[in-house]
């Protein structure tokens, strides 16, 4: 219970550490993201300003203002109204706009990071002042007039600059009736420039790809490190528990025969026993039986630590005949053996000694873990190129939690670890390893509350 408590605290501390690290990384990445975004905006503005302020673009802007000033004469002489004035100006600037866009596109391709950037120059307000009278041709509250580029959606636009141009004009014009008109006016143009940065996310993420990778890699590395550490701790804890269980089991297994040996030795030392040859012989036979139990237990433990080298010698065996003889000679206390062996004859290359040891383990377990009087079934059949041998009992079955662990070394199912059922948890481990040595496969085919079915598959 104390270990579980400490493990829980350690797990909570690791989770808290990971969450804290994620929180810190999030803020660092977010701040870096903002700085990278601002830096990108600054670079775009600086590079675009250097292009806009060059003579070609300045000449285009001057041409736009000249066309606007030329239209003021017809407007002041009442030959067009405001709507006609603005429509005419917009129509006359289309060619200039196309030329400006072509020039901009050619220059932007040579600037890193500006390939997807767009430019838009618009007139926000146009004011005409004539003889002290002010006439607003385009109001600031109205829809701005885009003269270069295209209208940019507000979510993709960043402000570049704002400028006010004052253009004074003083000229005389002669009408068809030889009437001379003197036109003197001041044109005030309030303009603003915007950049279209619809692809800024891609550029910013590209610049931050290294930061994202390092931040993600650090978090993943910490998670993997904690996972490996916890897995090692759980594995070590499991090994410690297995060692403890093994020590308890082997102590329990040795205690009974050693106690019997002690009693027999004490009896042999008695003079009245030594004077009776029949009783003495019976005690020596009992001593030999206890010795055999201890020797068998030691051999079983040693066998689990020896790694067999090389291949097991195999021979051609009539497996069905061999199993019929095995079932005929087999005697199980308090259990009935049922046999269903088919086909009538089948030759395979295998090792009879290995099969015998496997069957002994399976039948012994079936007898130990099922109540007295229950039958045990030995069944064989052919399936997909394999000769299958099944041992079926009618015990309480194995819980799903332990079904994947029953072939592990020293593992015993806790519910079955009763005082009436002895063992070290080595039988199934050794049986599976023996099956592998003859290219076979031992598995738990089925287990529930009605019993368990173990299956040995031998290649034909």
Task: Outline the structure in words.
It contains twelve helices and twelve strands. The model is unreliable at 176-180 and 306-310 (pLDDT under 50). The radius of gyration is 48 Å and the shape is rod-shaped. It is an alpha+beta fold. The relative contact order is 0.07. Helix content is 53%, strand content 23%. The strands form three sheets. Strands 1, 2, 3, 4 and 5 form a five-stranded antiparallel β-sheet that branches. A five-stranded mixed β-sheet has the order 7-9-10-12-11. The two termini are 51 Å apart.
Summarize this entry quickly:
This protein is α+β, with helices and mostly antiparallel strands and 460 residues long.
Walk me through the topology:
Layout: H1 2-52, H2 55-76, H3 82-92, H4 94-108, E1 118-130, E2 133-138, E3 145-148, E4 157-174, E5 180-196, H5 200-207, H6 209-269, H7 271-274, H8 277-305, E6 315-318, H9 319-329, E7 336-340, E8 347-350, H10 352-368, E9 375-383, E10 386-392, H11 400-403, H12 427-437, E11 441-448, E12 451-459
Parallel strand pairs: 7-9
Antiparallel strand pairs: 1-2, 1-3, 1-5, 4-5, 6-8, 9-10, 10-12, 11-12
Taken from the alpha-carbon principal axes, the silhouette is rod-shaped
Which percent range describes the beta-strand content? Answer: 15-25%
What is the terminal-to-terminal distance?
Answer: 51 Å
Q: Ranges with pLDDT <50 over ≥5 residues?
A: 176-180, 306-310
Give the structural class: alpha+beta
Number of E-state strands? 12
Computed over alpha carbons, the radius of gyration is 48 Å
Q: What's the main sheet like?
A: 5 strands, antiparallel
Percentage of residues assigned to helices:
40-55%
Helix run count: 12
């Amino acid at each position: 219970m104390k270990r579980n408590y400490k493990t829980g605290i350690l797990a909570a501390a690791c989770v808290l550490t990971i969450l804290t690290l994620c929180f810190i990384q999030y803020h660092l990445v977010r701040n870096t993201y903002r700085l990278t975004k601002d830096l990108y905006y600054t670079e775009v503005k600086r590079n675009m300003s250097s292009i806009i302020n060059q003579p070609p673009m300045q000449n285009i802007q001057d041409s736009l203002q000249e066309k606007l000033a030329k239209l003021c004469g017809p407007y002041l002489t009442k030959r067009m109204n405001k709507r006609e004035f603005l429509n005419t100006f917009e129509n006359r600037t289309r060619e200039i706009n196309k030329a400006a866009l072509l020039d901009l596109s050619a220059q932007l391709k040579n600037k890193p990071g500006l390939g997807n950037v767009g430019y838009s120059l618009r007139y926000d307000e146009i004011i005409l002042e004539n003889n002290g009278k002010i006439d607003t041709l385009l109001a600031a509250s109205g829809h701005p007039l885009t003269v270069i580029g295209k209208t940019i959606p507000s979510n993709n636009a960043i402000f570049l600059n704002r400028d006010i141009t004052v253009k004074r004009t003083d000229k005389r014009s002669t009408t068809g009736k030889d009437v001379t008109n003197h036109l003197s006016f001041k044109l005030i143009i309030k303009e603003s420039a915007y950049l279209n940065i619809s692809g800024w996310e891609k550029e910013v993420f590209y610049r931050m790809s290294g930061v994202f990778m390092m931040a993600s890699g650090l978090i993943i590395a910490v998670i993997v490190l904690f996972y490996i550490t916890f897995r090692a701790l759980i594995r070590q804890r499991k090994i410690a528990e297995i060692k403890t269980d093994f020590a308890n089991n082997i102590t329990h297994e040795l205690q009974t025969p050693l106690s019997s040996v002690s009693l027999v030795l004490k009896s042999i030392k008695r003079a009245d026993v030594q004077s009776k040859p029949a009783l003495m012989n019976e005690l020596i036979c009992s001593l030999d039986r206890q010795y055999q139990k201890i020797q068998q237990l030691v051999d079983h433990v040693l066998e689990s630590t020896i790694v067999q080298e090389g291949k097991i010698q195999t021979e051609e065996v009539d497996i069905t005949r061999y199993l019929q003889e095995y079932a005929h000679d087999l005697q199980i206390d308090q259990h009935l053996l049922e046999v269903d062996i088919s086909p009538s004859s089948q030759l395979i290359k295998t090792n009879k000694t290995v099969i015998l040891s496997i069957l002994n383990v399976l039948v012994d377990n079936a007898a130990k873990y099922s109540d007295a009087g229950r039958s045990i079934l030995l069944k064989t059949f052919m399936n997909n190129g394999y000769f299958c041998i099944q041992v079926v009992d009618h015990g309480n079955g194995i819980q799903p939690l332990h079904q994947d662990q029953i072939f592990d070394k020293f593992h015993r199912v806790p519910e079955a670890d009763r005082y009436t059922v002895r063992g070290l948890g080595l039988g199934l481990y050794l049986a599976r390893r023996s099956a592998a040595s003859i290219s076979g496969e031992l598995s738990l085919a089925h287990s529930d509350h009605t019993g368990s079915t173990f299956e040995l598959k031998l290649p034909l």
